[in-house]
Structure formats: structure tokens, C-alpha cells
Design a protein that fits this description.
This protein starts with 21 loop residues before the first helix and ends with a helix. It has 19 helices and no strands. It has a single domain, classed as MFS general substrate transporter like domains (Growth Hormone, Chain: A). It is mostly helical.
Length: 427
């Protein structure tokens, strides 16, 4: 068992010990990481089967985008109440139930006989996934020392990108060889199996003393967040980034299929390679931030702003160029930093939030990310593509990532005052 942190330990203390045994902490990481893989495999497989659904059911781009957006909408609406309950009734048990729901709903997607049945099943996928990211992050922050939080959370969230790669690539090949319905069923069964295993392997984290009295009613958490400028700016910045990232994630297989002439399976493979850049970038981004924010925690937000600016400028430049390797390289660069801000931003949010309310605060930020970014992004991009061209739609939306970068820099300015205010309140 590692020694507990000393009272002097802080986010930059290199001698801070693990709050649990090192072996168990990494087991918890492996299991939460695997569930995040399943989460995003179920969420992103739809992007690979767009060409099949468009051909079989004659769907518009707006309808296809809705099959992506409805998941994010359900996540946004339900993440706060589900995470609020997870703070009280057990994050591990809640995570297992969530995974069971999204796994079964993914199987139901494969059995759908029409657009509206599939839309309803996709909404259930989102209902199951609501709250998992915040609950998983809360489990990990109670298993690892604070000095590792940005790296660990960033690595945990990178499973979303890796799961997206697997979902898109496996979905494309399975749909082409076995049919799109079987592709959903295979991924859904994987999620159900993990849901059964999770509570058998992972125990509920120890709760802080007096946690029931410390956990605020949700209206008080909202009031606290509204009075914390850093949290509001992190929410706005992340929503802008998510709008761009999810739109490109949803439409890249179709873009490669339509403009580069690739068949759906090959287009999915190409998209998977681009998304993989994002997975590696998320892990590297967390490590870079932990290195350069050790003495100055506000650097977490400054570097997040830099990542968002690179995302926006790279994507804007890509669509000013003709089709070819340089365009694809710039798109890959944009993907490489497209979620690098997630781990550092959540870590910074935790620094200005009472520990007992971390999961609920993370869920409120996720609400903004989903409702203002991930939900409308693919839908509005699809309708813009219906009104013009997909390439034009993808060439316009990256400007929002630039706006996100500016919000992150504003959050860095308010961060020291909000940290000081939290310390005074806790005292």
C-alpha cells in the first residue's frame, strides 16, 4: 500500500503517494479505460455505416447527422442527474448500469427496421452513456495522486478516440462483409460483457469523511458554478471545440467516400488513422500539460487554449487547399490536438471545485459540451451540407475552435482568483 499524501502534498508535489495501492490504481484505470472504449465504439460506429444507411433508406445528410446528434443530446440532458446520483449511490455501480444500457441499446440499433427505430435506439445509447465520463474521471481522481491527474484523466479520455477508431474501422469492415446490423450487434455484446465484469473487479472508492453533508443540492452546485468564471469559460471553450471535433468525426468517412472516391470500408480505415492521431495527441497533451503546469497550474488552461487554436487554424487551412496529401496532413494535425484540452480542462475544473462535488461539476461541464457542441455539431453540419456541399460545411465550422481557444485563455486569467476563493470557502 502506498503512503497517503502528506498535508503538504499538492498538484505539483513529486513525492505525493497513491491514495490506494499502485497495482489497484492501474487496474481501476484499465477497467475504466475499457468501458470508455466500449462507450465510444457504440457511439461512433454510426459514422462508418452512413453510406449504407443513405443507400438503403435514402436518408438526407441532415437525418444522418441526427443519428449522431441524438446521442450527444441524450448525454447532455441526462448526464447531470445521473452523475448527481452517482456521487451519492456509488460511481462503480452506476458505471456498470450505464454500460449495460448502452450495450443493449447498441444491439437494438442492429435490429432496427427503419430510421425512427434506429433514432430511438441511438437515443438509448446516449442515455446509457450519460454520466460515464464524469463518473469514470471521479473514480480515477480518487485512485491516483493529484500530480498525475491531468495525465491520467487525459489518458482515460483518450480511450474515447481509440474507441472511435475501433468503432469506425470495425464498423466499416463488418458492415461491408456482414451487414451494418451485425456490426452494431458485435459492438453491443462487447459492452454488455464489460458491464458484467466491472463491479466484480472494481470496488467503490472510499468516500471522504462527512461526504453526505458536503455534497450540495444540485441547485447549489449550479449556483456555485455560475459564480465561478473559470468553470463557465471552460464550459464555453470545450463546447466550441466539441462542435468542431464531433462534426469532423461524424463526417470524415463520408467526406473520404464522396471526395476521394474511397469505398466505405477503406474510408473508415482512413478515418480511423486520422482519429488515432487524436488519441495519441490526447495522451501527449496531458503529459505536456502536467510537465509545464507543475509549478503554474493555470498553464493547464493556457496550453488548452493553444491546442484549440491549432485545431481551428489547421482545419481552416486544410479546406483552403485542393484535395491531396497536404490537406489530409492538416486534417490529421487538427485531430491530433482536437481533444488534448479535455484532460487538462477537467483537472483545472477540479481545482476550483469541492472534491465531494467533482462528478456533478464534471457533468455540468459535459452538459455544455454536449448540448452546445457535440449535439448540434454533426446535425448542423449535415443540414449545411444539404444546403450547399459537405466540403464547404467542413471548411466553415473550424472558426468555432478558434473562439474556444480565446475562452480558454480567458479561463486562465480567472483561475488564480477562483482557486483562492475555493480555499477561503473550504477554510
Amino acid at each position: 500500500m502506498a503512503l497517503p499524501p502528506t498535508p503538504a502534498s499538492g498538484p505539483g508535489d513529486p513525492h505525493e503517494g497513491y491514495p490506494v495501492s499502485r497495482a489497484y490504481a492501474w487496474l481501476a484505470f484499465a477497467m475504466t479505460f475499457a468501458l470508455m472504449l466500449s462507450d465510444y465504439m457504440s457511439r461512433q460506429i454510426i459514422n462508418a455505416v452512413f453510406p449504407f444507411l443513405k443507400a438503403e433508406w435514402s436518408l438526407s445528410d441532415g437525418q444522418l447527422g441526427s443519428l449522431v446528434g441524438v446521442v450527444a443530446l441524450a448525454i447532455g440532458v441526462l448526464s447531470v442527474p445521473i452523475s448527481f446520483m452517482a456521487d451519492r449511490f456509488g460511481r462503480v455501480r452506476s458505471a456498470a448500469v450505464m454500460a449495460l444500457v448502452w450495450g443493449l441499446a447498441t444491439v437494438a440499433c442492429g435490429l432496427s427496421g427503419g430510421y425512427y427505430q434506429l433514432l430511438a435506439a441511438r437515443a438509448l445509447v446516449g442515455a446509457g452513456e450519460a454520466g460515464y465520463g464524469s463518473a469514470g474521471a471521479a473514480i480515477l481522481t480518487q485512485s491516483f495522486p493529484a500530480r498525475m491527474h491531468a495525465t491520467v484523466i487525459g489518458s482515460f479520455l483518450s480511450a474515447g478516440m481509440i474507441g472511435s477508431v475501433i468503432g469506425v474501422v470495425l464498423g466499416g469492415y463488418a458492415a461491408q462483409s456482414l451487414g451494418w446490423g451485425m456490426a452494431f450487434i458485435l459492438i453491443g455484446v462487447f459492452g454488455v460483457a464489460l458491464a458484467v465484469m466491472f463491479p466484480l473487479v472494481i470496488r467503490e472508492p472510499a468516500r471522504p469523511v462527512l461526504l453526505p453533508k458536503q455534497v450540495l443540492p444540485i441547485r447549489d452546485v449550479l449556483k456555485r458554478m455560475a459564480g465561478t468564471p473559470t468553470l463557465l469559460r471552460i464550459a464555453a471553450a470545450g463546447a466550441c471545440g466539441m462542435f468542431v471535433q464531433t462534426s469532423f468525426l461524424a463526417w470524415m468517412p463520408s467526406y473520404l467516400n464522396r471526395y476521394y472516391g474511397l469505398d466505405p470500408a477503406t474510408a473508415s480505415l482512413g478515418t480511423g488513422a486520422i482519429i488515432l492521431c487524436g488519441a495519441l495527441g490526447t495522451i501527449a497533451g496531458g503529459a505536456i500539460v502536467d510537465r509545464f503546469a507543475r509549478e503554474r497550474p493555470a498553464n493547464r488552461l493556457r496550453l488548452s487554449g493553444l491546442f484549440a487554436l491549432i485545431l481551428g487554424l489547421a482545419m481552416l487551412a486544410a479546406f483552403l487547399l485542393p484535395l491531396g496529401p497536404l490537406q489530409l496532413a492538416l486534417i490529421a494535425l487538427g485531430f491530433a490536438v482536437s481533444t488534448s484540452y479535455l484532460g487538462p480542462a477537467l483537472a483545472a475544473a477540479g481545482d476550483v471545485t469541492p472534491e465531494a462535488n467533482h462528478a456533478t461539476t464534471y457533468a455540468l461541464i459535459s452538459l455544455a459540451y454536449m448540448l452546445l457542441g457535440a449535439a448540434p455539431g454533426p446535425i448542423l453540419t449535415g443540414y449545411l451540407a444539404d444546403a450547399s456541399e459537405l466540403s464547404l460545411a467542413l471548411g466553415i465550422i473550424p472558426v468555432l475552435a478558434v473562439a474556444g481557444g480565446l475562452f480558454f485563455f480567458a479561463a486562465a486569467k480567472s483561475f488564480p482568483c477562483d482557486v483562492e476563493r475555493l480555499g477561503q470557502t473550504s477554510a
